[in-house]
Amino acid sequence: MFIVFLLLIQLCYVVNAHNCLPEEECTVKSWREWENCSGNCKNITKQVRKRTICVDFEKVQPFTRENVVQFCNITVPTVETRPCQTCPVGIYNVISQKCEKCNYVNCRDDPCQQGTCNDTAYGIRCSCYPGYAGFDCGMMIPRDKTMTQYLLPLWMPPLEYGILTLTTLIIIMAAGCLCLKCCRLCGACSSDDDDDDDEERKRKKNKPFPYRSHGFRNTRKPSVVIDF
C-alpha cells in the first residue's frame, strides 16, 4: 500500500514534499508554485499553478485531474491561471524573470514591435526606434518632461494676433488695388472720371458767394455799398 501512495505522489506531481496519508484520500493540498508561461514562441498565453489532490489512482481510471475532481466531488478550485508577462518572442521564465529566446524565431515572424529586425547567425536582432528598448523593442523609455516642455512668452499670443490682422489688411488692400487695375483695363472705369471729379471740386471752391458782415454786402454787381 505504501508503494501505491508513492506512485500516487508522483502521478499527482506533488512538490515541496507534500505527503499523502491513507486517511487523506480526496484531500486537496495547498497551492504549488507558478509554472513557466505556456504558449507558442510568438503568442504567449497563460501561466498555471495547481493544487495537489491525494487519491488512490487505482480507483480512478483513466487517471486524470478531471476524473479525480469528479470522483472526489471537489468543488474548490484546483487549477489557477493568470496572464503571462509580456514576452512576444519567447517563453517567460518565472525564476529568472526574463524572456527566453526561441531558436526558431526569424524576422518573418515580425518580432520587433518598435524597430527593424535583422537575422544573424545567433538569432534575430532588433534595432529599436528612438525612445524604445528591450529584446523586442517593446519597452518605451520614459522621457524627462522638463527637457521636452517648452513655454512660450506671454507676449507671443498678442503678437501673433497682430501679425495675422496686419497680414489680412495687406491682402485686402492688395486685392482692392488689383480689382481697380482690372476694372480700368477692362474699360469699366477710367482715370477720366477722377479728373472730372477734381475739376468739379476746384470749380466749387473758386465760386464766389454772398456774405454780409458789419454793413458790408456782396452782390453780383462789382459796386460796393457802405452804410453809415
From TrEMBL:
<keyword id="KW-0472">Membrane</keyword>
<feature type="region of interest" description="Disordered">
    <location>
        <begin position="190"/>
        <end position="228"/>
    </location>
</feature>
<keyword id="KW-0245">EGF-like domain</keyword>
<protein>
    <submittedName>
        <fullName>Uncharacterized protein LOC111133825 isoform X1</fullName>
    </submittedName>
</protein>
<keyword id="KW-1133">Transmembrane helix</keyword>
<feature type="signal peptide">
    <location>
        <begin position="1"/>
        <end position="17"/>
    </location>
</feature>
<keyword id="KW-0812">Transmembrane</keyword>
<dbReference type="InterPro" id="IPR000742">
    <property type="entry name" value="EGF"/>
</dbReference>
<feature type="domain" description="EGF-like">
    <location>
        <begin position="103"/>
        <end position="138"/>
    </location>
</feature>
<feature type="disulfide bond">
    <location>
        <begin position="128"/>
        <end position="137"/>
    </location>
</feature>
<feature type="transmembrane region" description="Helical">
    <location>
        <begin position="161"/>
        <end position="180"/>
    </location>
</feature>
<feature type="disulfide bond">
    <location>
        <begin position="107"/>
        <end position="117"/>
    </location>
</feature>
<keyword id="KW-1015">Disulfide bond</keyword>
<keyword id="KW-0732">Signal</keyword>
